[in-house]
Amino acid sequence: TGTIKYGLEILDDAVGTVRKGSMTFIIAAPNTGKSLLGLQIGVEFAKQNKRVLICSCEMGAGLLMEREIRKEAGISRNELRDLYESRRDIANKIMDSMIEQSQYEYMTRIDICETAGATVEDIIGCIQCGSQDGKPYDAVIVDYIQRIAGIGEEYRVITNAARQLQNLARDTGLYLICCSQAGRQSIDEAKFGAKGAVDGSRIKGKGSGSIEEDADVGITLMELFEQGQKYILITLFKNRYGNLKNISYKYRMDDRLRLTLVTKDGG
Question: Which helix (H) or strand (E) holds 52?
Fold first, then answer.
């Protein structure tokens, strides 16, 4: 058993605590929210006094932190950018207040490394380098695994990256969260209502079956639009730590990138 929570209802209900040395995979189509969810879990770890490294192979560090600031400040992207253009003094006051208030101290426990074009060896080097100052990372978020560089076929590159990261987690006791892009076939089946697609069972990681095999815990994300409102259906498809799996929770996403639980089991 572990001592910290994911901070996401479906994982906390079904898996419980996060185990040291475990690998959790988040699989989703492009622009569905895997980076957002990875960041949210990393933030929850930091709020529980854990040191977190986000290896961002896609989004820049500034954009990731902008997402967190928007959520905490309760302001949309356009409102934030308009504020900087028209009233930079007010925008800076918001930023300064977040730096000064103890409730936002958790942000100082999050490091973001832009790793676009990096190999898995580069990423492991980043993790080990950050651990040399006497304060090793407790958790690492890799977003996303298909952007890790390597030599050979995509399948082999992804498989090698997943296995090496898994071995590192096992050896060091890291909490490892890996984001993965869904395969094109999986995306199409989910969109066009193929049999079994509604519960996420057809959504698979792009390029390597090892993603599903190596994960200790695995979830998929699928976008839903109902009456102009965006929802995210999160399905737990793998759970080595309990009997609960193949369950779906429906979340609402607002323009400030906040996920709110609406229903359980997709009902």
Answer: strand 52-56
